[in-house]
Fold this protein.
Amino acid sequence: MSNTPTMNFQAYLADTYRIIKEEPVILILGGVVVQLLTILSLGILAGPFLGGYFLLIIYFLRDNKKPSFNDIFSGLQQFGNLFPFVLVILIIFIGFMLLVLPGLLFATWWLYVLPLMVDRKISFSEAMRLSMNKVNETGFLMHFVFLLLISVIPMMLLNFLSAMMPFLLVLKILLPPFQAGCLASLYIDKFGLAETKDLHEEEEVETAPVEVPAPQIAGATEQTAAVEEDTPAANETPDDLSSNTERQNHSHENDDGQEKN
């Protein structure tokens, strides 16, 4: 995990290239399916489907888990948690419509919201807080540049070139795998395994039951010990009790004889 204001863009590109090379069908076709389902649902299912898409990439890069096409729909299991992500898309869209800069600012601060929600299964508000804190701690400017490099510049460049060469529009299907792969790699770099492990440990500590010792009454221990000395053992037989009584009587007789002498 890194908290320094540096980014290894080469490593992020290498991770993205590796997963697209090893799983091209799932990444490319899955990206197309996610875009279509998001559009058909008018953005309502953007959180669950984009979340599932991110999660399969995170599992592949971080946990070496081979993805399957069904993993794209895994975000539906967290529908209630991921549904509010549509608000992020809406706010960023409004920011771009009013002025471009506010949209870019919100998009930068909330860069990690969806990966955090789907990977850690935390609430929308908590993911927004953690994302903004991480961006501010590790360098807002670097994250802003990262966003330009993976999203704004490729889209502008592709739209410009496709206006002259329409067949280049086909390359748009490569944008979702490229963007999601780079962001997943950045997320793993900045949050990593250690912080996730610490989060689970904190949750276990918080939920661990606290044992309260039973109160002790002053003198109770001494009284209990005295009773135990006066009370014969439960496992002693009648013969043992009789023998003990005879030994005690014999001892008293010897003491009386010594006193007379």
Remarks:
- The chain has two domains: 9-194, 222-260.
